[in-house]
Amino acid sequence: MSNTYLATAMQTVADPLQCGRFTLTFERPLIMGILNVTPDSFSDGGRFVARDAALAQAETMIRDGADILDIGGESTRPGAPPVPLDEELERVIPVIEALRSTGVPLSIDTYKPAVMRAALTAGADMINDIWGFRREGAFDAVKDSACGLCVMHMLGEPGTMQKHEPVYRNVVAEVREFFDERVRTLTEAGIAPNRICLDPGFGFGKSVTVHNYDLLANFAGTQPVNMNLPLLAGMSRKSMLGAVTGRTQPSERVAASVAAAVCVAERGASIMRVHDVAATADALKVWQAVREAANRSQ
């Protein structure tokens, strides 16, 4: 048997993740469905701003195989303007409250401590913070809860992160070093390691066709030393896929997104953050069947 198949068959399963009301395990990669309640997100902005439309989309994603829902009230695409606090709260809190009884974990995509607190009170199970809980007040907002923490790597800040070519000496090593520091800081401050998952931040201060693909090719290498934390991958419909396929519109990048999901599953991702839940779920079922066949062939 080839080394490639052996590596796939023996791939390490990440440690369980305490995520609010849920304990997530990773015998297979989990699918996080993206629910943007924003007018300006890069792919589906404006489609689900209305509460009823957002709830209907959530129900569809759950039916299609979403294991987690990630609710966002502020676009973090490159160059996106910040959203006032009250407006973000008005967008996300009614949706969280309405979805609390769906039986799946609810993640809130925010970097604002006030939104974190309100979301946890409303029923959120995870805080997905593009700043990696580095902003003032973020740690205090989550420390006394049982929520999961998704710590993302970002070089720069959303408004300007892609205006100049990002520079790394070694992007994989630097992302891993960032995770080492964040995990150490959070755990020393009292956050249990089993509450933390890690997102290398595809497209957040990375060059489109070099840094993003170096991270994808060496995805498992971002894992902190001597840790086995869940790694989350968010590449769905992003410009890194359009750059190699020539697809200029995000809605045209479904096939590329599914291909990227399979590639990163092969490289150890525990959670896929995606727009296209049904297509991703089908692809991962095929990938899982091949993996199980490889195990039987040993």
TrEMBL record:
Enzyme Commission code(s) on record: 2.5.1.15
Pathway(s) served: Cofactor biosynthesis; tetrahydrofolate biosynthesis; 7,8-dihydrofolate from 2-amino-4-hydroxy-6-hydroxymethyl-7,8-dihydropteridine diphosphate and 4-aminobenzoate: step 1/2
GO molecular function: dihydropteroate synthase activity; metal ion binding
Cofactor list: Mg(2+)
Domain of life: Bacteria
Pfam families: Pterin_bind
A biological-process GO annotation: tetrahydrofolate biosynthetic process
Enzyme kind, highest EC tier: transferase
Family designation: Belongs to the DHPS family.
Function: Catalyzes the condensation of para-aminobenzoate (pABA) with 6-hydroxymethyl-7,8-dihydropterin diphosphate (DHPt-PP) to form 7,8-dihydropteroate (H2Pte), the immediate precursor of folate derivatives.
Name of the protein described by the UniProt record: Dihydropteroate synthase
Lineage: Bacteria, Pseudomonadati, Pseudomonadota, Betaproteobacteria, Burkholderiales
